[in-house]
Design brief:
about 25% strand, alpha/beta, six-stranded mixed β-sheet, two-stranded parallel ribbon, 8 strands
């Protein structure tokens, strides 16, 4: 079993052409679960694959059994350095699309999760920094970047 991350956006940028060894964006195909894909709100839809191919496992994920919060890695709960760097790299892609005025949402799920098990959260990247950002298992993030000038500094970075 694996994690899967799907992203939708209003940006027409070809995310598969982004030059990174830390992640891959693949266009959503008919092989992807249509019931999950239909939860996405925007027309341009992507599957986020980890640097090793196949799944979306090698990013920072928070299991729903551990509560929901954004937090940097802790010494008492070590995380793989590659997973941390990959998540930071994807954070910057998401932040860039939002800063350019595009809408973005994403779903992080455990393989074979039913659509009714997905919970939605509004997440402002102007309030979550790159070190604290992580995906929440079986959740849809409706992303935005807003707030006061101080909060928007993440979005303008």
């Amino acid at each position: 079993m694996c994690y899967l991350i799907y992203i939708s956006t209003t940006s027409k940028e070809d995310l598969s052409a982004l030059p990174s060894k830390l992640y891959r964006f693949l266009p959503v195909t008919e092989d992807n679960d249509p019931d999950i894909i239909n939860l996405l709100a925007h027309p341009m839809r992507w599957y986020l694959q980890c640097q090793y191919g196949g799944c979306s496992c090698h990013f920072r994920h928070l299991s729903t059994s551990n509560g929901l919060d954004f937090a940097p890695p802790e010494d008492w709960a070590p995380e793989d350095a590659d997973d941390i760097e990959s998540t930071k790299a994807v954070y910057h892609v998401l932040l860039g699309m939002l800063a350019d005025g595009h809408k973005v949402d994403l779903i992080d799920l455990w393989n074979n999760t039913k659509p009714e098990a997905i919970s939605a959260l509004d997440v402002s990247l102007s309030e979550v920094d790159q070190d604290s950002f992580r995906f929440f298992e079986n959740h849809k993030f409706n992303l935005r970047c807003d707030g006061t000038a101080e909060l928007r500094q993440n979005c303008d970075a």
